[in-house]
Amino acid sequence: MLRVLAQVAYRPALLYIDSAKYLVGSGGTAPEGYQALLRLLDPAGGLALVAAVQHAFGLAMAVALYALLIRRGAPRWAATLAAAPVLLDAYQLQLEQTVMPDVLFETMIAAGLVLLLWPRRAGSADAWLIAAGALVLGAAATVREIGITLLVPVMIFALAAGPGWRRRTARTALAAACFALPVLGYMTGAYYVRGDFGLGSNGPGLEYGRAAVAADCATLAVPADERALCPSPAEVRALGGIDGLLHNPRSPGHTVPVPPGLTRGQLLDRFLLAVLGQQPLRVAASVLRDSVRLFALTRDGDPQITSITRWQFQTFYPVYPHRYTMAFFTRLAREHGSGGDLVAVEPAAALLRGYQLGGGYTPGPLYAAGLAAGLLGALSGLVKRPGLVRQPGLVRRPGLVRRPGLVRRRTVTAAGTELGTACLLVTLAAVVLLLSSDAFEFSWRYQLPAVVMLPLAGALGLTAVTARARRAIAARTATGGTGRRTRPASAESGPRAPAGR
User: Are 428 and 160 in contact (CB under 8 A)?
Assistant: First the structure.
């Protein structure tokens, strides 16, 4: 019903500043995987169909996450809680209604994780699912460049999953090759079409904004022609944070004169290297300060980051500064099969806005709990614990269980290992992806994959921790709490027959 309401409230769909480059063409500044989807849907139903399909992606992700968790043995209430953010988060709904690649990107992440983590039997299906999951996650990088960072958790997962170093090494090589296949295929095609072997380029000096915000201009030693690139905190706030430093025409990155023999990109890169070389801890602290914003209880506007209002429902059809006017958006929509004007139906839009601002989003503490539970689940599944292992022959060495064939050793069950590696994959993927995005710029839009990944990590972690606790209780019950297997009382009474040889 929320999704139907969103389609009624904003017709035919919401457009954002970057929507134009995906509808018209980015000229190589962004990967064009999302454009492939638009080319399929535009002729059939225009932008309204694009929004409807993206809403269907949201519902499909929730179903897939719920099914995966049930198959992995999670309680139904935990699986429901993990699927709820995708269904009910208003920021998720707003981007599903917007012509932007983020929903397709998180859908491909969810699909890849489900393929990698779906319970499988030993044999070729294991390798097949790893290959399929790595292929889908690699293809996600053709939708948003930051997806390339998922190669690290995929390879670590393939290396940690399953017995035997030879099989692990082979699976890791297979996962890396399948992940790289769509990336290299896209880059090769881009080279033949544009002469540029890459996924895309957002322009020179993309990292300049983070360096300028983090730098201590009073102690930074840079040449005189770079000094103006270091703004004061007041200037950063006036420009609109990192996003303003990158895109505002009044930003020093756009207005500082370029010395002869250099390009603007080279000038910004020199400033970046100076900040990283002289003040690396300030840059790291700046990234970490932004990364913890995700876990805050409320979502308030902050002049240091991209305005959160861009990802909130409005009671009017939103437009943006400079050339992104209503006339521009209307012309763009008509060029892509959407007749009529862009409209916002105020009663429905006001209802969505009230829902969003009134708490209709995933609270930060739930994300924090998901991250903590995912880390605990990874540790509980991978760290060995004392257990009883059956071994042929009579054991007589001191310090071992005094029972023929039983030895106390530190062991990990197969189920515990599988749940541990599952938690490791999802938690590590979330951390790598979100931190990599924050390293450039914090935006609530870039935090959207957390809606899928952190609740999933938390539910898997909860399942792993509770399963380990149940196994520990069962083992303690079997040994009578003494570390020894207990013998029934009937076996102790009466004469005993002599043992055979």
Answer: no
Tokens for 365? 């503490």
Span 282-310, average pLDDT: 89
* Residue indicated by tokens 């290297």: 273
- Contact between 306 and 242 (Cβ < 8 Å): yes
Q: Where are the domains of the chain?
A: 2-201+303-387+410-473, 208-295
Ramachandran sector of residue 263 (left: φ over 0; alpha: ψ -120 to 50; beta: rest) = beta
Nearest to 115 by CA among 130, 94, 96: 130
Among 293-302, 334-343, 358-367, the range with the most confident prediction by mean pLDDT is: 358-367
Structure tokens at 333: 């929509």
Residue 430: which of 449, 448, 458 has the closest Cα?
Answer: 449
Question: Which DSSP helix (H) or strand (E) runs through 11?
Answer: strand 10-11
Question: How far is 108 from 102, CA to CA, in rounded Å?
Answer: 10
The predicted-structure confidence for 372-419, as pLDDT tens digits, reads as follows 999 999 988 666 555 444 445 444 455 544 455 544 444 445 556 788
Q: Can you state the angle between helices 264-278 and 280-291, rounded to 10 degrees?
A: 90
Q: Residue 20 — left, alpha, or beta (φ > 0 → left; ψ -120 to 50 → alpha)? A: alpha
Which DSSP string do the residues of 56-117 spell out, in sequence order? HHHHHHHHHHHHHHHHTT--HHHHHHHHHHHHH-HHHHHHHTBSSTHHHHHHHHHHHHHHHH
* Paired tokens of 263: 């390009």
How long a stretch of residues is the chain?
501
Q: Give the number of C-alpha atoms closer than 13 A to the C-alpha of residue 399, restricted to the C-beta side.
A: 2
Q: Which of 310, 199, 196, 294 is nearest to 247 (CA)?
A: 310
User: What is the three-class DSSP state of 386?
Assistant: strand
CA–CA dist 341, 198 (Å, integer): 37
Cα–Cα distance measured from residue 329 to residue 391, given in angstroms and rounded to the nearest whole number: 73
Measuring CA to CA, how many Å separate 110 from each of 72, 79, 116, 150, 318? 16, 15, 10, 12, 30
Distance between CA atoms of residues 409 and 403, nearest Å: 14
Torsions phi, psi of 385, nearest 5?
-130, 155
3-state SS, residue 183? helix
For the chain, what percent of residues have pLDDT higher than 70? 85
Q: Give the 3-state secondary structure of residue 148.
A: helix
The contacts of residue 448 (CB under 8 Å, 6+ apart) are 91, 92, 95, 102, 103, 106
| Pair 293, 286: CB distance under 8 Å | no
369: tokens are 């709990």
Residue 323 near residue 332, CB atoms below 8 Å? no
Closest CA to 445 of 434, 429, 459: 434
**Per-residue pLDDT tens for 75-118?**
999 999 999 999 999 999 999 999 999 999 999 999 999 999 98
CB atoms within 10 A of CB 423: 31
User: What is the three-class DSSP state of 141?
Assistant: coil
